[in-house]
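Inputs:
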Amino acid sequence: MSGHENKNKMGLKQALAAVQQGLCSAEEIIADCFDRIEAREADVGAWQHRLTREECLDQYRCNREFYEQSLLKGMPVGIKDIIDTADMPTEMGSPIHQGRRPVDDASCVTLLREAGAIVLGKTVTTEFAYFRPGKTANPHDLERTPGGSSSGSAAAVADEMVPVALGSQTAASVIRPAAYCGTVGYVGSRGEFSLRGIQPLGQSLDSLGLFSRRVEDIELLRAVLLRQRDPLNSASALKPSKVLLCSGPAIGETSPEMIAAIRQVEAILVEQGVEVIAPDLGTWLGDLVVHHGCIMAYEASRNLAYESRFPEQLSEPLHALIETGLATSRDDYLKSLHAAEEIRQRLFSEFAGVDAILAPAAPGAAPEGRDKTGAPHMSRPWQVMGLPVVTLPGLMDDNQLPLGIQLVGQARDDDRLLSMARWLESCLSS
Amino acid sequence: MSGHENKNKMGLKQALAAVQQGLCSAEEIIADCFDRIEAREADVGAWQHRLTREECLDQYRCNREFYEQSLLKGMPVGIKDIIDTADMPTEMGSPIHQGRRPVDDASCVTLLREAGAIVLGKTVTTEFAYFRPGKTANPHDLERTPGGSSSGSAAAVADEMVPVALGSQTAASVIRPAAYCGTVGYVGSRGEFSLRGIQPLGQSLDSLGLFSRRVEDIELLRAVLLRQRDPLNSASALKPSKVLLCSGPAIGETSPEMIAAIRQVEAILVEQGVEVIAPDLGTWLGDLVVHHGCIMAYEASRNLAYESRFPEQLSEPLHALIETGLATSRDDYLKSLHAAEEIRQRLFSEFAGVDAILAPAAPGAAPEGRDKTGAPHMSRPWQVMGLPVVTLPGLMDDNQLPLGIQLVGQARDDDRLLSMARWLESCLSS
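Outputs:
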């Protein structure tokens, strides 16, 4: 690691190793992250609120001994502004909560800080993690959306402002921005992490999510968030034996470039000796998209009870979501919950030998325009079944825009899924 | 309703009807609740923080028009001090959070206030809704525990200080104090309510709970919390066709008085023409008790990440819970989650025609001494399966202490369960 390279480009584990080996200091990495932010933030707009360079370096220097002895060595992280922080505002992308300052850190923030991460700032979220975009641009093309709702976290990691960031997903809020921005994205199984201090949208759907540029960094953060005893010790990369391929159209609109990308990954898998099946799943996935929408509307209208007092401060789509939720009958809501669980059970019993599902992480590359965040349908089926998902970057369209794919695992089988994602990552980058 | 009666004795719906009919005013009811609190609070100790009589009446008078037109007419409610309130401290029974003042109301608080309830105060909780008791006494015998963790809510409702109160349950925190104090208690199915702003202990276990003196009041509050269109309109009481009886010993220690009480309810059911079965469930229920404990320890140790920094300010049992959780292997945790779901499915497929399960709500009457809150085993099996439960009062032991029974429904079948509970309530009181 020479003094000339930009140390903000390193992944988290790579940076920790460099610090450990004395190749560079944590302060140099922090300084390079700020160089990058200062050069790019006016264009990218990833941050809602952040420390200044001086505040961040002061925080490091005032607690140098702690950071030096810590696991994460003072490495900077971004936190989606839907996640509470006691030392910075948490405004949830809404004027209703302008200047809101929580009294507690969310538990995920507590755990990262305790492991030695420095919260560099809060990243832009769409309004309450739903549709209305913030100011963030796609680092690959500033006229395109970064995707939502974890827009700022995806853009900050993709643009090498920070090595890792936290997000959350109720529909497609991690997987889609990771795909559009070309980062790794991970959504934990339902129930996997403590969601204390994360604004809920749908209690049957919400998951914590993580962004990084390498799968190994997700594994490290995950271990920290689960308070595992030896967070640096991850399992070997795992080649799946059998993968179920879903090229996209069975879920919804899919671009030809995305279908070609999925076929390219299929060819890599087959070449590596992985059995790939592409059964006709009938209407299951399309049905799950509908059930997801029903559950989300019903639950959001209860979770956002406070905010629905201020209709004039809500975007039209969010207002419509709440109205739809209030008009949804309890019977329809329960039917959707029941149907999603039934399809999940049938899927994994009918295809019992499948190790993972491969599908597009988004309908295509990031669409033009920053007034929308792209369509969420590619994530809805897995999210309503509570499954863990990893977005992998590496493929591009003709405009050199990222085309993200996703690997989906069985419920609560997150560790094995990440081992398989790490294996596939190495295939895609070689 | 003559001027001489104590208006605090009325149930919520009864009070609303009296106000509606001009038999008394909301202010008179509030005043009588304060008379009761002032007479009894020094002994019972239900409140952690509360409005003064003047503050409460001012709140009513300054918004008289709103309250008069509202559904709940300014009726006072108690809120367990694990649930965030923006206008009062929320200290969660721990010195770590002394004076903690959240920036937002929990969504359940928002919805009650919006419907016209006045939050009279915060009720005593055990430390983080676990074992260490607060100051509350059992109103039926001040030397006995009110049960925990929703100790203050149960005692305040039982002692007629307020008609209704909110609680929460991760193990037995609503069902047991309701049983010991002789109130109705209700725990919603997993996922039923928005838990925004309620301190989590175990994300796979936590439920919102309600206390009242009549089942109909639970139904009204539930409708408000679900934003139902016509909250006063509840279904007819429903006689179950078939009830599965669990007398207690298959779960754990059960007092002879409690077994006799359950037999008494069985006799009533049979007399009413209900089919009662009492099959041998083998080790299912005992196994569920163990699985519940494993999941609770694992998840609590992640949810209380912040608090585990302050071991000297934690009680010994809570510290031990966190240590147990950190020492629990992920495999064991996942096995417990899986086993609980498997038993749930087998139970309801093997006994498909059963409308409800009848069991003791606690091992017996409230034990002597206020240093412990009683054993939680009677609730663990249902809680780990995510089922809705109602505690019904009405039975007494030889010392005139309440013996609570519980009626358990299928997951998400809360409305039907409450209709059956209302039917059984009428049998027990006649």
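Remarks. Chain B has a mean pLDDT of 97. The longest strand of chain B covers residues 389-396.
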